[in-house]
Amino acid sequence: MSIGKNIKTFRKEKKLTQVELAKKANMSRSYLADVEGDRYNPSLDTLSDIAEALGVSTADLLHGRESFGKFIRLEREMAGLSLEEVCRRTGINETQLSRIENEDTTSHYFDVKTMKKLAEVLNVSYVQLYEATGALIDLTEQEKKEFFESLYKEDYINEQVLFTLNLFDFTDGKNKELLAEFINTLSELIVKSKKKFTFSINLEKPENYQQLKNNLIDHNDIDFKSSVIEALSNLALQHKITEKINPLPFKTEREFIHDAKIDLADKDLVKKYPTISVDGRPLSEKELRKIIGLIRMDRELEEE
Could you tell me which residue ranges the HTH cro/C1-type domain spans (predicted)? Predict the structure, then answer.
């Protein structure tokens, strides 16, 4: 697009009138209108004033914002990935992604799950990927913040689901009693919540247990998943299943902590209670910090 059209696009994104932008950039509205209409070529100083008023760079005004397709292609190439590899790892249709990269279509929105996979495969943040789509243009900064916090919170819950389910192992077929309690606990939660959720009771087969994990991760009700975490964690405690320690991945945990303002590294609390024991074993500093984080997570969910 031309410089004038780029300025107009950014102005509309910022929800500014020509009068408002002209005032912020210290110029007349009529002059700005002529610039947007490509009737005048602004000087670099004028471009700099307009860019500052819009909160963008001069390069953005000169070249326009990078399209979603171009963003994906550049990040994919920087990561050394082929189009086929990205599609295989994300489940995106190859023809669809190719058309997006070549800007042959305006339909380039994926569901949240696919966007998460794409961000992970390209090794970019959610924020970068969603901003590149242009889908957040009409949102206020507060609405953007709430949107991304909800994504990070869902990630955190899903990590807890996997951590909890990984405590149990029914593949050896020995602990029939625990398996029965596990199935009953989960079934009661489903009935109580009135959620549509099914799973195979033959959880001794690894593929069925993996499918249960996948179905829970894909479920879109955070409250239901939180109930599953709590109930199955209690079941694990009752059966003294404490040997398997699998802390949350640092990257996801740090992302969630940063955006949801949860501080797991509360050294004062850790130092104040260094002698807490579970099953006769003192909790490590890492375990104490995790407990502190889970408590704060529960409080945040209760406040909503």
Answer: 7-61, 72-129
Residue 204 DSSP code:
T
Q: Which domains does the chain have, with CATH numbers?
A: 3-63 (1.10.260.40), 68-133 (1.10.260.40), 145-257 (no CATH), 266-303 (no CATH)
CA distance 57 to 258: 27
Instruction: Give 6's contacts (C-beta < 8 A, 6+ positions apart).
Output: 60, 61, 62, 63, 64, 65
106: CB partners within 8 A, 6+ apart: none
Q: What is the pLDDT of residue 226?
A: 86
What DSSP designation does 222 have?
H
Phi/psi for 282 (5° steps) reads -60, 140
| Integer Cα distance of 62 and 35 in angstroms | 13
Residue 25 has pLDDT above 90, yes or no: yes
Task: Please enumerate in sequence order all residues whose Cβ is within 8 A of that of 187, keeping only pairs 6 or more positions apart, or say none.
Answer: none
The residues, ordered by sequence, that sit 6+ positions from 212 with a Cβ below 8 Å of its Cβ are 165, 199, 200, 203
Q: Which tokens in the block code for residue 142?
A: 């507060």
Question: Does 181 score more than 90 pLDDT?
Answer: yes
Separation between Cα atoms, residue 89 and residue 120, nearest integer Å: 10
d(CA 231, CA 186): 8
Q: First and final CA of the chain: distance in angstroms?
A: 44
Per-residue buried b or exposed e for 25-36, using 16+ beta carbons within 10 Å of the residue's own CB: bebeeebbbebb
Give kind and range of the element (H or E) at residue 125.
none
